[in-house]
# Entry
Amino acid sequence: MGGLGGVKHPPDQGPPPLVVLRDVVRAYPRGSSQVVALAGVSLEIRAGEKLAIMGPSGSGKTTLLSILGCLDRPTSGEQLFEGRSVASLGDDELSRLRNRSVGFVFQAFHLIAQLTVAENVETPLLYEGAPLHEWRPRALRALERVGLGHRADHRPSELSGGEAQRAAIARALVTSPRLLLADEPTGNLDTRTGEEIRALLDELHAQGATVVLVTHNEALGRGAERVVRLRDGRVESEERR
Amino acid sequence: MSPALVVLLRLGARSLRLHKLRSSLSILGVVFGVAAVVAMSSVGEGARRETLAQIAALGIDTVTLKPPAPPAGEPAATLPRAAAESLARVVPGVQAVAPLRVVELQADAAGRSAPVIALGTTPGYAEAARLELAAGRFLADLDVADRKRVAVLGASVARALFPLQSPLGESVRLGGDWYRVVGTLQERAAPRARAAAIRARDLNRAVIVPLPALDRGGDRQPEGVDEIVFRLASPDGVAAAASVAQALVRRATGAAPEVVVPREILRQRERTQRVFNVVTGAVAAISLLVGGIGIMNIMLASVAERTREVGVRRALGARRRDVAAQFLVESSLLTVTGGLFGSVLGLVGAVLIQAFAGWPTAVHPLMLAAALVVALGVGIGFGFYPAWHAAGLDPVEALRRE
# Structure
């Protein structure tokens, strides 16, 4: 676990980065060979920033997002989350970290069809271990934040695409995570609804959330403070705006 | 209950309701398995209780001696009456002893008649057979010595012959002789003819008279009796006392008498019961095994079609054990529901068996609790592999699954 010294920051440079990746490689075995999704990515994400990860499909964007959200582990390389080495955390601790510190927003919403909108939003609270009486108020607060308070008792199948994605964002927000990870959040939406979701993410960012977007939609990436471009599993360019 | 369990139960119930037909079909094995256990064990329990009731009526501290069965074509043998007196002296711990003559007769009184079992005996029979008087008195020593024609009526005889008045002081005709009624017995639990381990005499149908007063005439030895019953002060020495009594009678008559020891019969019955239990258990185990495999099958299907949900839940912070718990709760809910339906079906089965086959049945409440616990065990046991499989899914791959 060498190299911890390289990520220490003097006090005058503010808090340490939320996430640090150093030379992260992610390779999957396929048959006798390997598929390399990430071929050595180094990246820092600071608290409160809005970052877009862009690149053509197959460039490793989604893999990178999974690793950032501690859903997947690097094959090699170093990863720190809030200053802690992720490699040293067990599966239960990673689950806890995903629950408390990370909110996922998926392209296909991934709402659970049998549950109502409010119950979907309450799901992370089950794993947080929150007392039952807190669930409904907290879920409603999260739904209000995304402007979906009136749909709490509907089924996901009764929602429009934009509403479903709002519900998914509310679910990501309900545990007040430090990091919001969105994988092509507008990919399944028409332009106008996509624009609404983009505005919602901007608003959450303005309220202090750290937002990382994965997209190949230039319009969506344009609003980010920093754009990291991936190609063939490597960082091709990084621009700050 | 923890909030997690409440929510998981609600979730599980909802997911099972979503596939009503599939869920109901998958629990059939458990339903029939549990029903078989409940029905069969209620038959076993019924037989056990009946045996116990008979033992209680006969007493586990009594021994009955009967003459050896005669060779075919010869008249029934008897035991010497004198043996009863020597038994009382020689066998250790004898509390009461009574010789018995037994004849099936018709009894008549005041224009009514009833088939009865006439028992000729001595006053010691009251204690040896645990007789309780309802009214009047039992036989006295003088009745025997003077061959008095007095009678004590069993409860159903008294009811049949004297439905409206007290039988005390009335006369009853028995085999041509008139007897004066001096007492009546209290009602006793009647032994049932079928499925009985011990054929106990129905003393409600008895008319008890002094031994010498029961004249059967004919070629029988006047001093011969059909049975000798004795009761010990404590049930512990019953087997030893039985063999002493048997040896004593053999020495006197040259032939070993048949010895009926209810306690030994009870032991025998328990051994039979154990065999029955093993067979019942094996049948139950096989049906529950088949039921469990059905549950495992359906849970594997459920995990497969909800792989993406597993991925989503893992992304939202579910630990492996949270995922496993969700599926385990679901499989347990299935089998416990099956257990409930199975118990009801089993109880209906027990009632039908009693009604149509005439076997006594009884339900032990612990048995029902055990059936549900077993059903829960099947749910957890056979739900374990699917749950473990779901828990081990890679979250990233699970999310990618359509």
